[in-house]
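pls design
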């Protein structure tokens, strides 16, 4: 059963990690997929190759989500290629781990601009296109368990993920009258490029695994099912919701 048959899905940060898994997963469910990516042309092209190998159309658009014009450009190019936008997966994010007391201003600013401002601009641009074309749509934002808990070396990151979660709640209210559903997923510790250096420490990785009731850390593919569900008509009456995808870590943080 292909849950996204005939839909066009846009994914930010789509060349690696959760974004890449979501893009390929959407194609597996029958969607044409446009990905935004920041830097790696080779990884973006290989993602598109996987999408096309599944019999779907793919498009890669390079751009920095921290810039408002990137969102307008991404949506416009997706519409030019596919004719419409049905789903946005707002996923692009960074987490440069750093201590709080000497956190560089530029690190704080960049993290907020990519993670929160970038999500805002992308959601707004996609929503405007959905309103113009009619017929509703779905927006899924990748927040984090960090929206709900703190992190000593993530004082700049956790507020942005709380903001993304809050953005989906408010956007759900603002866009409901247009038939646009807005939800977030809150991943736990997922093995991606963001945390590969942090989790290279075997002792820390084992500690994180022990804190997870399911006994393992997450993989990007673990997010595909939840994202596809929220993007699909199976979630037709779900909006303003937040879905933890963390192997049970949050309920075990005591």
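designed seq:
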């Amino acid at each position: 059963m292909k849950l996204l048959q005939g839909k066009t899905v846009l994914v930010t940060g789509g060349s690696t990690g959760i974004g890449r898994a979501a893009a390929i997963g959407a194609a597996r469910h029958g969607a044409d997929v446009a990905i935004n990516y920041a830097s790696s042309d080779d990884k973006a092209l290989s993602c598109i190759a996987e999408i096309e190998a599944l019999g779907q159309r793919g498009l890669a658009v390079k751009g920095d989500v921290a810039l408002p014009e990137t969102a307008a450009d991404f949506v416009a190019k997706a519409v030019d290629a596919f004719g419409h936008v049905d789903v946005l997966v707002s996923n692009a994010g960074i987490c440069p781990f750093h201590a709080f007391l000497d956190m560089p201003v530029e690190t704080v600013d960049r993290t907020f601009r990519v993670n929160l401002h970038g999500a805002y601009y992308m959601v707004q641009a996609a929503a405007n296109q959905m309103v113009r074309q009619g017929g509703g749509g779905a927006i899924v934002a990748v927040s984090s368990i960090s929206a709900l808990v703190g992190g000593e070396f993530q004082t700049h990151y956790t507020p942005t993920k709380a903001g993304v979660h809050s953005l989906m709640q408010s956007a759900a209210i603002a866009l409901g009258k247009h038939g646009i559903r807005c939800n977030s997923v809150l991943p736990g510790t997922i093995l991606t490029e963001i945390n590969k250096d942090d989790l290279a420490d075997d002792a820390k990785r084992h500690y994180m695994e022990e804190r997870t009731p399911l006994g393992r850390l997450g993989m990007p593919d673990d997010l595909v099912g939840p994202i596809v569900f929220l993007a699909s008509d199976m979630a037709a009456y779900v909006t303003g919701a937040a879905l933890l995808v963390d192997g049970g870590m949050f309920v075990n943080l005591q």
